[in-house]
Design goal:
Largest sheet: 7 strands, parallel
Strand content: 15-25%
Number of helices: 16
CATH topology of the largest domain: Rossmann fold
Shape: globular
Number of domains: 2
Distance between the termini: 6 Å
Structural class: alpha/beta
Strand order of the largest sheet: 3-2-1-4-5-6-7
Length: about 400
């Protein structure tokens, strides 16, 4: 099967959906199950060639977002005719609306509909329109979680089948403590970034739905009785971050909170491993990849009750209601005061994370590709290659 995967939205420093797209492409390229072609940004061929040597890269998409989105509708058809794929895959909500081959579209979450206040207005208008169009035109849809799949079906009643393909984690990078030598190496990595223990850690892009002001308030309540404790907010600013700065200033903890901005990917496992706890108090996610990475690294995870993060972590995580700083403060205090219980949670988290791999994620996508190809009916084989 020949698959044309649109990787043009992946930025230079990927997070979230970008990490998903990169790892999916890597697994597909190395699987031998598909003839993988990548629609990449102009000038981005080297990165994809190094990451996915088994794929054919077409670095033809404009780099800037408005031109890239215009290319998707006006220029993707030309590339599709040249590549002649069995399936086009749009991994970030959208697809070319007029396409001569079956399309698969990934829908990560439904917050553009359920919580538009968490997003910039221009994005809400665009993605609502494109998600609706995708549910009408795609031959198959992929969701990161059962929660997203259920909400997608409830709200938009898609014509195409929805495949749930949970995200994975790179267990070669995200793994627990490797003994005294590993601990010393982690501390050296973090020291170069100005991070000393003990600390609580949050990782992810700062934006309204992440619940960071609640975390700051909870940390402020802990800080007085724990003068050595710090809070590390690791990740770049998204939009709507004034509330985070306001909370830090209001609670007078600016000297105790480190905002790192973009955080080096090679240092992230060390940050998670050495944290007293990783706190991910997001109000809602499609999957919550930072929570899974924390579990795999052997961190104590404190996250939100009745959320996809709680679903994936099971009893390994400490959970509290969303937006409740008092409950979050109490949970963090309990974690800090009970190291034996924390050790058992770390072990449980590692065991839980073993069930999530990028290979399994790719296999879920292969199932969706087959559904999409079957949806199109019988098609002539491509010249010059054997069909699978």
């Amino acid at each position: 099967m020949r698959v044309l995967l649109d990787v043009s939205a992946v930025p230079d420093h990927p997070v979230g959906a970008g990490v998903y797209t990169i790892n999916l492409a890597t697994e597909l390229a190395g699987s031998g199950a598909v003839d993988l072609h990548l629609a990449a940004r102009a000038g981005d061929a080297r990165r994809w060639g190094e990451r996915c040597p088994g794929a054919t890269c077409h670095a033809v998409v404009p780099a800037r977002r408005p031109a890239r989105l215009a290319w998707e509708q006006a220029g993707a058809g030309k590339l599709t005719r040249r590549v002649a794929p069995d399936v086009w895959h749009g991994p970030h909500y959208t697809m070319p609306l007029f396409l001569g081959v079956p399309a698969v579209v990934t829908v990560h979450d439904m917050t553009f509909f359920d919580h538009p206040e968490w997003h910039e207005r221009v994005k809400v208008a665009f993605f609502r329109r494109m998600i609706r169009a995708s549910t009408r035109r795609a031959a198959a849809l992929v969701a990161d979680s059962d929660r997203t799949a259920r909400r997608l079906e409830e709200l938009l009643h898609p014509r195409a089948p929805v495949t749930v393909a949970p995200l994975g984690v790179d267990h070669g990078r995200f793994h627990p403590d490797s003994g005294p030598a590993g601990a010393a190496e982690d501390r050296a990595v973090l020291r170069r970034l100005g991070i000393e223990g003990p600390y609580l850690a949050f990782t992810g892009t700062a934006e309204p739905r992440k619940g960071i002001p609640t975390l700051v308030e909870a940390f402020a309540a802990l800080a007085g009785s724990r003068p050595e404790l710090r809070l590390v907010l690791a990740g770049r600013d998204g939009w709507g971050t004034a509330a985070v700065w306001d909370a830090i200033e209001h609670h007078r903890v600016s000297t105790r909170v480190l905002r790192t901005g973009w955080f080096p990917a090679d240092a992230l496992p060390a940050l998670l491993r050495r944290a007293e706890a990783v706190v991910y108090p997001s109000l809602e996610e499609g999957f919550g990849l930072p929570a899974l990475e924390a579990l795999a690294a052997g961190a104590v995870l404190v996250t939100t009750t009745d959320s996809v993060m709680a679903d994936l972590a099971g009893p390994a995580a400490v959970t509290v209601p969303a937006g409740d700083p008092a409950a979050l403060c109490g949970a963090l205090a309990a974690v800090l005061d009970d190291p034996d219980r924390s050790a058992s949670r770390r072990a449980a988290g590692v065991a839980r994370a073993r069930g999530f791999t990028w290979r399994a994620c790719a296999e879920g996508h292969l199932a969706a590709y087959r559904l999409a190809a079957e949806h199109s009916g019988s098609r002539a084989p491509h010249e010059g290659r054997a069909t699978r």
